Amino acid sequence: MRKILLPLLTAVMLIGSSSSVMAKKDDGSQVQPDNYYPRVKIETTMGDIVVELDRRRAPITVNNFLRYVDKRAYEDTIFHRIVPGFVVQGGGYTADFNGKSNFPDIFNESGNGLTNDLHTIAMARQSDPHTANRQFFFNVNDNSSLNPGRDWGYAVFGVIVEGEDIVDAMSEVETEYSIRLNANNVPIEPIIIKKMTVLPPL
């Protein structure tokens, strides 16, 4: 009886071990795991943008972003905050200004050496440095004020490689105050993210 139980116990342990490993691989790290510079195509109502992400410098942030892309969680969200000469921010709300659900907040990787230069992509957050989750923004200027110094900065995790003109055009659309969001700088005509796709490795 003991000879039969031991192989069964070993099999159960192996199954449990493999399933726990599989469970852990749902954080974005499973998306092109050997590619340090994955590219994502962002299809919007104003045109397409391609970003190249830097997994070497910002592994937590890139995996988090890829997790939302993999879950198709950015589809039908909007760019809700546009400040000319500063940022184009989105990924958190629907066109009806309903907030989307988040995965847990992530560690702030703003000290990774990447800076908030023109046409980079970075994570939005609240005043607490470690509150980034799904919202991101494009820098439409060299925004050195967003880099870390005495305080935590805003984590840059990639750069636009196609569609810089699209983002520049976004930064110039007409905006207004939104009662629903209780915020200024909201585009009058919604700019919607229709789809995000992880492109094949180069």
From TrEMBL:
EC number of this enzyme: 5.2.1.8
Residue ranges annotated for the PPIase cyclophilin-type domain, each copy included: 36-198
Catalysed reaction equations from the record: [protein]-peptidylproline (omega=180) = [protein]-peptidylproline (omega=0)
Keywords: Isomerase, Rotamase, Signal
Gene Ontology molecular functions: isomerase activity
Pfam family, one: Pro_isomerase
Signal peptide: 1-23
Top EC category: isomerase
Domain of life of the organism encoding this protein: Bacteria
InterPro entries: Cyclophilin-like_dom_sf, Cyclophilin-type_PPIase_CS, Cyclophilin-type_PPIase_dom, E_coli_cyclophilin_A-like
Function: PPIases accelerate the folding of proteins. It catalyzes the cis-trans isomerization of proline imidic peptide bonds in oligopeptides.
Family: Belongs to the cyclophilin-type PPIase family.
PANTHER family, A to Z: PEPTIDYL-PROLYL CIS-TRANS ISOMERASE CYP38, CHLOROPLASTIC (PTHR43246)
Protein name: Peptidyl-prolyl cis-trans isomerase
Species of provenance: Alteromonas gracilis
